[in-house]
Design goal:
The protein is mainly alpha-helical. It has 12 helices and no strands.
């Protein structure tokens, strides 16, 4: 439920949330351009190490403490391993081989995976309307994947890994709902991010040991700062505030902006073509999600990229 606020405060919260959606869309471009030098998992490690520490500092400042009861700490750590560790390994690795457009559109199907997993573990129910919506969305996923044809090449494998990343985030949301409600979003996000970062250490160290770090310059430093501070730390804080001020429904409805914006940005900045299969597949995915959400409620997909 939305909290009270002046009209100007609520307007600012909504404008800020829209701005975050644009930042998250830009994050696809920033990561895609940076991982050839910093490596996929290396970039994810640096990004979330900074973001996690900043969020922890903000939690200490705003809430006065950063502690988590031991009974929940291990659960949040496991959730972080899946939702931030495994997710980021899959997503950034996939982005090195697939297009920004395909990545953004496939990630947009995350609410469907969340719905199906929640139904499977008994925390939600799967009715006829939701099942129809899921089938429609999966049809959209197939259309997007058809961009690469029938061959399982490197780009197609990237799409498969992206779907795996979306499933990881759905697991995080579905299994974490109960424990995440017991603590503030800022506190749980900070600890989950740092736990996921710890999981990234071995792969990041191996990748960066074989990378040409001499090529790292101001552009890569700026990219990590953008991805960590704007897309990671600031993005989560602004969206959580938006949910508090406006309610989850209005904020969740904005989550369809990043894929569309990312496709346009990739065309302008990276020269990626906007393909008919992406347009049609994206529309079908969104249609399926909207149908599946009928009488389902809303679960904001926060910080997914």
């Amino acid at each position: 439920m939305a909290s009270a606020g002046t009209p100007s405060e609520r307007r600012l919260a909504e404008i800020s949330a829209v701005g975050v959606m644009a930042i998250w869309a830009g994050n696809f471009i920033v990561v895609k351009a940076s991982i050839p030098i910093l490596t996929p998992v290396g970039f994810a490690f640096l990004r979330f190490l900074v973001a996690g520490l900043v969020l922890l500092a903000l939690c200490r400042w705003w809430e006065g403490s950063i502690g988590i009861p031991r009974r929940d700490l291990w659960r949040i750590a496991l959730l972080g391993f899946v939702g931030f560790g495994a997710y980021q390994m899959l997503w950034t690795t996939a982005l090195s081989s697939t297009s920004v457009g395909n990545s953004a559109l496939l990630i947009a199907a995350t609410p469907i995976f969340t719905m199906l997993i929640s139904a499977a573990i008994g925390t939600d129910r799967l009715g006829r309307t939701r099942a129809i919506g899921a089938c429609i969305s999966f049809g959209g996923v197939a259309i997007v994947a058809a961009t690469h044809g029938a061959s399982l090449d490197r780009a197609a494998l990237g799409d498969v890994l992206t779907i795996g990343a979306a499933i990881c985030w759905a697991i995080y949301v579905s299994f974490g709902a109960a424990v995440l409600r017991r603590h503030s979003p800022l506190r749980t996000s900070a600890w989950a991010i740092l736990a996921g970062t710890a999981l990234l250490v071995p792969a990041a160290a191996w990748e960066m040991a074989h990378a040409d770090l001499a090529a790292v310059g101001p552009a890569q430093v700026a990219a990590v700062a953008y991805s960590a501070l704007l897309a990671g730390a600031l993005g989560n804080v602004v969206v959580f505030r938006g949910i508090k001020m406006l309610g989850p429904t209005r904020i969740t409805n904005l989550q369809f902006l990043p894929p569309a914006l990312a496709i346009v940005m990739a065309a302008i900045v990276l020269g990626e073509p906007i393909l008919p299969t992406q347009i049609v597949g994206g529309v079908v995915i969104v249609l399926g999600v909207v149908i599946a959400r009928h009488d389902w409620g809303t679960r904001p997909v926060v910080g997914a990229t």
